[in-house]
Design goal:
Layout: H1 10-14, H2 24-36, H3 41-48, H4 59-64, H5 76-84, H6 131-142, E1 148-152, E2 155-158, E3 161-164, E4 168-172, H7 173-181, H8 187-191, E5 201-207, E6 222-227, H9 232-238, E7 243-248, E8 251-257, H10 265-274
Antiparallel strand pairs: 1-4, 1-5, 2-3, 6-8, 7-8
Helix pairs in contact: 2-3, 2-5, 6-7
C-alpha cells in the first residue's frame, strides 16, 4: 500500500469524476486505487455518496476489506485517467461554493454585472390553468416526438425533504402529447397521481428508456438556470430559453439549449473558469 502523501492531487482528481457516470467495475476500480494509494475507505465513501441513487450505507467499508488481496493491483493512474477525460489537470482546483459566497468580482467577466440584463414582459396567466396544454407545449418545445421522456411522480422523505423515486420512462414525447390531448385535463390519467405537497419532476434531456441517471441520457441538450433573488422579468432577460416556468412568485426556471443561447455561452464559460467552477450538471 502506498503513502497518500505521494498522491496529494488524487482526491482533487477524484472530485472531477461523477460516480453516477461510472459502471460498477469502474467504481470499484476507483476504490481499489484509493486503497493502493494509502487513502481510507471513508474517502471512497464520501465520494460515492454523490451517487444518491446507487449509494448504499456500509457498502464501501465492506468492499474495502477485500482490497489488496489480488496479485493485480489498480493504482492511482486509473483515477487520474478518469479525471483527465473529464477535463482535470494538475493544479486546477475545484471546491464547493457556499450559498453566500461572491463568485466573481462584478464587471470582471465580459462586462457582466449585477444589473446586466434585458427585461422581457412576463406572460401572466389569466383565467383557469390548462395544465394538460401547458405540459404538451413544454414537451413539444423541449423534445422531438421520438425522444423517450422520463418523469417522476412518486416521492419518499429524507431528512425532512421530499426526494424523487425511480421514475417512469415508458413513452416518448409524441405518445405523451397524444394522451394529453385526450385526457380532458386530467393529468392523472396520463402520468398517474402525485403528492401535491411535493409536486412532480421531469427530466428535460431524453433518456434511453432504461433509467434516469447521467448514463441513461442519450444527449445532453439542456441546462437548468434559476434564481430566487433577481426580478422575474430580468431573470428571463438574462437567458435565451427553450421553456420557462415559475415555481413561486419570485422564481423563474429556464431550460436553455445549445441552439438558443450562442451569445451567452462565452460569458457563462468565462464566469465558470474565473470562478474555478469545474462543471455544473443538473437534469431535474
Amino acid at each position: 500500500m502506498g503513502n497518500k502523501d505521494d498522491h496529494k492531487d488524487l482526491l482533487e482528481a477524484l472530485s472531477w469524476i461523477d460516480p453516477s457516470e461510472l459502471d460498477y467495475q469502474q467504481w470499484v476500480d476507483c476504490g481499489m486505487a484509493l486503497h493502493e494509494s494509502g487513502f481510507s475507505w471513508q474517502d471512497w465513501d464520501a465520494w460515492s455518496r454523490m451517487d444518491i441513487y446507487r449509494y448504499h450505507e456500509g457498502e464501501c467499508e465492506r468492499k474495502w476489506k477485500s482490497f489488496g488481496r489480488s496479485p493485480s493491483r489498480v493504482k492511482s493512474g486509473t483515477i487520474i485517467a478518469f479525471a483527465r477525460a473529464r477535463g482535470w489537470s494538475p493544479g486546477v482546483k475545484s471546491y464547493a461554493i457556499g450559498w453566500d459566497d461572491e463568485i466573481i468580482d462584478p464587471g470582471d467577466a465580459f462586462g457582466i454585472t449585477p444589473d446586466w440584463a434585458d427585461e422581457v414582459d412576463v406572460d401572466v396567466m389569466d383565467g383557469e390553468w390548462d395544465q394538460a396544454k401547458d405540459l404538451a407545449d413544454y414537451l413539444a418545445a423541449v423534445f422531438e416526438d421520438s425522444d423517450r421522456v422520463c418523469y417522476v411522480n412518486e416521492v419518499y422523505e429524507k431528512d425532512g425533504k421530499y426526494m424523487p423515486k425511480r421514475g417512469h420512462w415508458d413513452r416518448n414525447a409524441g405518445e405523451l402529447r397524444e394522451e394529453l390531448a385526450k385526457c380532458d385535463g386530467d393529468l392523472g390519467k396520463v402520468l398517474g397521481d402525485w403528492n401535491p405537497e411535493a409536486g412532480a419532476w421531469i427530466c428535460f434531456n431524453p433518456v434511453d428508456g432504461k433509467g434516469r441517471s447521467n448514463q441513461n441520457i442519450t444527449e445532453f441538450r439542456y441546462a437548468l438556470v434559476e434564481s430566487d433573488t433577481l426580478e422575474v422579468e430580468k431573470q428571463l432577460g438574462k437567458v435565451c430559453t427553450e421553456s420557462a416556468w415559475r415555481s413561486s412568485i419570485s422564481s423563474a426556471h429556464a431550460v436553455n439549449s445549445r441552439r438558443t443561447w450562442p451569445t451567452r455561452i462565452p460569458a457563462v464559460s468565462h464566469v465558470c473558469q474565473a470562478s474555478r467552477v469545474a462543471r455544473i450538471v443538473r437534469d431535474f
